[in-house]
UniProtKB/TrEMBL annotation:
InterPro entries: Bet_v_I/MLP (IPR000916), MLP-like (IPR052006), START-like_dom_sf (IPR023393). This is Bet v I/Major latex protein domain-containing protein. SMART domains: Bet_v_1. Belongs to the MLP family.
Amino acid sequence: MALTGKLSVEAPIQTPPAKYFNIFITQFHDFHSICERIHEGEIHEGDDWHVTDSVKNWTINIDGKPIKLKEKMEKIEKANKSITYKFFDGDISKNYKVFEFLLQVIEQNDGSASCKITIEYEKINENVEAPYGFLEFFDKCLKDIDSHLLKA
């Protein structure tokens, strides 16, 4: 069994792609009030939620259980509407040495759009399952964000 892997989920969005992407770089601090499975978030290091050198503490719900972890934006690419994140420390480090994910808002030629999350991970040993609970978490959050923006 491999210790490293990649999983992805893609959700269609009805929100205009630029507006959908923009919430991740301007309103990340509000996600605990937008996404049902995010219980709380606070800055751990730095003073701005939307820059690559800030570290945030999160409590999220994975498989019905609260999980505490830290998150850092590694790279923001506005031109292709993508952001690379890293999860580390806390509960996630009990199972994964590496946990990074790429968020990308994708515009189709027919005018439709979607948001795709790709998780890259390295498990601490072969007994750890792939992070399917995190995939479900991201899928739900992507839909919660779209619903929130459509109401705004």
